[in-house]
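Can anyone check this?
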Amino acid sequence: MEKGKVKCVIFDFNGTLFFDYNENKDAWNIVALKHRGSEFGEEEYLSMMGKTDRRCAEYIKRDGTDQELDELSEEKEDIYLRLLVERNIRLEKDAVSFIEECKSRDVRVMIASSAPKMNMDWYIKNLNLGDYFNIDDIVAGRDDIPSKPAPDIYIYTQRLGGFEGEECIAFEDAPGGLKSALGAGFKRVYAIKSPGMNLEETGKLAPLVDWKWALENIDKVLA
C-alpha cells in the first residue's frame, strides 16, 4: 500500500452499517413507559445515541441497583431483537459493497461499537458479519472501555489493529460517536446520513455523506 494511504477503516455499527434507529427507539420507549411512566422526547432520545445500554438504563432509573439496571437493559434488548426479526432489518447494501471494496484493496475493516455483547453476538450470527469482518476486529460490549464520546474505544480499536490514528478513518452517525473518533486523532471522520440523525448538529462535526457517495468516491475516501 502506498505511503500516506488509509490503512484501516473503522465503522460504528448501529445507525452506520445497520439502520435500526426506529427499532432501538421503539424498544427504549416501551421500557421507559413501563419503568418511568413516559416515553422519550426526540431531543432526549437523540442525546442518548451512542451511549451504552447501562448509561441509558441509568437515565431511566436513576436510583436503580446494579441488578435492576442490568435487568432493564436486558428487557430492552429482548424487545429490540424481536423487532429486528419482525421487521427483517438487514445491513445496508451499499455499505456492504464499500466494505468488500476496502478489503479488495487490502484496507483493513474493523468495528468500534457501543452495542452490548448479546446484540453483537446476534448480529454476527444473523447478519453473517464473519463474511465481512475478522471477528477479533469487532469491538463491542466492553463495559471496561469508557462510553462514547470518550475517544477510548476508537483508540483501543486502532491499536488492536496495530495502526496509528492518522492511518485510520471512521464512519459514524451520532454526535457522540463522531466526537469519539475525532478525539482519537483519525485522518478523517465521515458522518453517515441515517434515519433519525440530527443533521444540523452532526454536520458541524464531520462531512455528511451516504454509502452510495462513499462507494462512488472510494478513491478519494481512502486516499
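Reply from J.R.: I decoded it. The beta strands are 8-11, 108-112, 138-139, 168-172, 188-192, 208-209.
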